[in-house]
Design a protein that fits this description.
about 140 residues; mainly alpha; DUF1761; transmembrane helix; DUF1761 domain-containing protein; membrane
Length: about 140
């Protein structure tokens, strides 16, 4: 599968990554800022804005986007319907499930709310990635 790196449309990978990343920035700072803070038990606090909280998610989002692109090419997915199907499979089976698993720990006071906010972001993000990658293939 790794041999697919040579076949990727890297411009589409970068565009998909940027869209996924920008949606994340808006999701957690503008669209769902208050519920996200509630999920973390920090509704009356300003969340830290350290470089790790910006660079870390961006790096992870790039890895997810690249991995998805490799799978899309390895599975020879070319239709929008198939890309959405793969997005739903990966989004639900890996991203949402893993987000929920991470949320269920004693450090997150409202794990279900956290899972809904973060999991939905990842599902929407990977759907956009799938659409962009297949449309630009």
């Amino acid at each position: 599968m790794i041999n697919q790196l040579a076949n990727l449309n890297w411009i589409s990978v970068i565009i998909a990554f940027v869209v996924y990343n920008v949606i994340g920035a808006l999701w957690f700072t503008l669209f769902f800022s208050k519920p996200y803070k509630m999920a973390l038990g920090k509704e009356n606090e300003t969340l830290p804005n350290n470089p790790i909280f910006i660079a870390g998610p961006a790096i992870c989002t790039f890895v997810v986007t690249l991995t998805f692109a490799i799978l899309l090419y390895a599975l020879n997915i070319r239709s929008l319907g198939d890309a959405i199907g793969l997005s739903l499979l990966i989004g639900t089976g890996f991203l949402v499930a893993n987000t929920t698993n991470i949320a269920i720990n004693p450090n997150i006071p409202r794990p279900i709310l956290y899972s809904i906010i973060s999991g939905t972001y990842h599902l929407v993000g990977i759907m956009l990635v799938g659409v962009i990658l297949v449309m630009m293939r």
